[in-house]
Please model this.
Amino acid sequence: MLLLLAGGRAVAQEITPPADIEAAALAALGLEGTASEARVDQALRLAACSTPLAASATGPRTVQVACNDAPGWRIYVPVRVSRQAQVAVLTRPVAAGEAITAADVAVRQRGIGAASPGDWVDPEQVVGQTATRALAPGAALAGGDLAEGRLLQRGDPVVLVSREGGIEVRMPGRSLGRAAPGDTVAVENTGSRRIVRGRLVGDGVVEVMR
Model:
């Protein structure tokens, strides 16, 4: 607490403990019970608040903590985010376009930083999916690392599908790039030599975009 002089004698002024400010900041980001750390100067001396501290996130790693008394106070608290989650981890190197087998995957507890657990692949849904890029052993698998179905490689033959007015036309083509299912890719119509862009909608099937 602070000591102020009033009428020649010392008067104690209550302060808000830095730990209370830290707790409010972590709660605003939903990080209670994690290894995350709110960084508040332990020498900080702010007046005690007669109402609960108000805290609101101003960014993924910053929180405004305020006392709404009159005159009150407000400060910005930086937060070091540290979360843990059960994630799927590769046990061997996997090349782009290679299918993932059960023997390739283990489940490990890992720190995932500021990401949420939802950004990572459900370990139960990894097997049978295709790597969209080369992946190293020990890497935690994120959503963009895998796709369902075969990865299309440059030079692969494809079927071009064009739909208009209820009419569907299929033509042979050749991929000019690599694509995971759902991605767009440039394709050469091997009959007309025309280059078009389309979306990979199935195994070797590209729907022309209009």
